[in-house]
Amino acid sequence: MAKYSRSAGKDVERAMDRRKKGKLKRGRGGKGGTVKSRKQAIAIGLSEARKKGKKVPKLKAKRKTRRKLKKK
To answer: What are the phi and psi torsion angles at 61 (to 5°)?
Structure first.
C-alpha cells in the first residue's frame, strides 16, 4: 500500500515548480525569503498536503535533548 497519495505528490510537484520560479517562500507568512533547497521545497509541499488532509505519513516527533550540567 502506498504511503503517499497521488494528490500529495501533485502538491509536492507544485511546490517544486514554485521553487524553480523563485516564488516559494520560507517561514511564517513567507517573510523568511525564498527557498533555495530542493529538500526544503519537498518538505513544504508535504506540509501543505498534510494541511489539506491528504494521505501523507505523520511527522516524527522532535526529540528534546538536554545537556546535563556538570556539578563541581
So the answer is: -65, 140
